[in-house]
Design a protein that fits this description.
With about 70 residues, this protein is mostly helical. Helices cover about 45% and strands about 0% of the residues. It has one domain (about 5-60). The longest helix has 15 residues, at about 35-50. It is elongated, with a radius of gyration of 26 Å.
Length: about 70
């Protein structure tokens, strides 16, 4: 099926056992990025944007001295 036919897809999706055969396989194919690839890309972008600096982290904000 090269083009989307929403009504037909819904009809097949709504088939229930035992009155109808159980639909199996790919009913609708949508081109979308792979989840893992998107997550890895977001992690890489975040790492490039934020370069951790332990000294700045320790000296930033409210600090206290333990005696």
């Amino acid at each position: 099926m090269t083009k989307r036919i929403p009504v037909l897809i819904k009809m097949v999706k709504d088939l229930e056992f035992p009155n109808s055969p159980v639909p199996m396989g790919i009913i609708k194919r949508v081109k979308a990025p792979i989840f893992e690839d998107v997550v890895h890309e977001q992690i890489t972008m975040a790492k490039d944007k934020f370069k951790p600096d332990l000294k700045k982290l320790i000296e930033a904000g409210d600090t206290w001295e333990v005696k």
